[in-house]
Amino acid sequence: MHDIAAVSWGPDRIDLFWVDADRVLWHRAFAAGSWVAPESLGGVLASPPAVTAWAVDEMEVFAVFDDGTLRNRYWDGVSWHPWESLGGSLALGPAPAASSWGPDRLDVFAAGVDGTTWHRWWDGARWVDWERLGA
Q1: Nearest CA-CA partner of 45 in 9, 82, 20
Q2: Residue 47 backbone dihedrals phi, psi, to 5 degrees
């Protein structure tokens, strides 16, 4: 997989995410005018990553894993939190898509094994169950 996901959570900041040949997620940031060294975020991904930022210095990255579940890791401004399963019965290969409309809202979309689009969102307090959006 050579797909790259990118996000910016503030001025002069870009964060890149990609999957290497071993299917491990990597992260690299452009900050203060230069690129910092890449860091491994682990995992064994079955899809390219998707990423969104919901506030200054806060972002979340998503990917499908071999068991067909969506997993996420998030940066809280201090550290990366471990991979968390968001469940699902998702197709291996296609990248999920992620967006945010504000500090307490994250949306993620993914292709299901049934050939339809599935949606899950963070409402500021919890991850709401998957909803089927259709084709």
Answers
A1: 20
A2: -150, 160
Domains assigned to the chain: 4-134 (2.120.10.70)
DSSP H helices, the chain, are none
Rounded distance between C-alpha atoms, residue 110 and residue 33, angstroms: 34
Average pLDDT over residues 10-19: 96
| Rounded percentage of the chain residues whose pLDDT exceeds 90 | 93
Cβ-proximal residues to 42 (8 Å cutoff; 6+ apart), any chain? 24, 25, 83
In this model, does residue 89 exceed pLDDT 50? yes
Nearest to 4 by CA among 13, 14, 12: 14
Q: For strand 105-111 and strand 34-35, is the pairing parallel, antiparallel, or unpaired?
A: unpaired
The residue written with tokens 């200054």 in the block is 56
| CB contact at 8 A, 67 and 79 | no
